[in-house]
Amino acid sequence: MSTLNSLFILSPTGDLEINKLEVKKIPEFKVLFDRDKGSTGDSAGTKKYIACAEIYYIYLVYDIRSLYYNLPIEEKKVRARKDAKLPDNWKEDKAFDKAIEVYKDAFKLSAAGNAYIVAEKSYYFVTRDAAEMQDSLMDMKEQLTHVIKKIKVTPKSKDIEVVGLLGDATALIANMAKTQKLLIDAIKTFKDLGENVKTLSYKFMEEGGNIKTPVGGGELNSREE
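Now predict its structure.
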């Protein structure tokens, strides 16, 4: 299984670098470098900042090892564009689309690979939803506390206002109970989903798949020739 690992290098500072010598061996990528005639900070076009940023963008959006691969495609593109520091006027074109297809082709997955990705994404979304439900519970608890305090200080002469506040409290309690049940159900699925992800990841790796988290994490640099 081709992984294109040689396109990226981990620098001594921990940054992810583009290995330009290896990249230029791939015609569709070489086109991106040849057309990069310069940009801000690279007036002579020797450092190929734009071409390197484009390849880093492809990695962030389409590589299964990307930190963002669980996210919806449009959100991935927004984050990738920012992380790659592409110019505001940059747009995808046919040459770039061809480079994307070459990259994606190198990461075609087996049945086990696809199953692993589906299971891992399901696990990701369940845990994310559970975290959001916990936040909602905290918000509702604060709202309920506020309503109860307000009931305590409301004069008995304002029975209509008290009735309204009691209605708010009742609705909050009902929503909290519903959310707690959903949270408990989500937590119960963690173990099974986690085991599925673990089992499928082993199967995927047995077939030569690579599920390591992406190297680096700092700013993208270009490796000089």
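The first strand starts at residue 8 and ends at 10.
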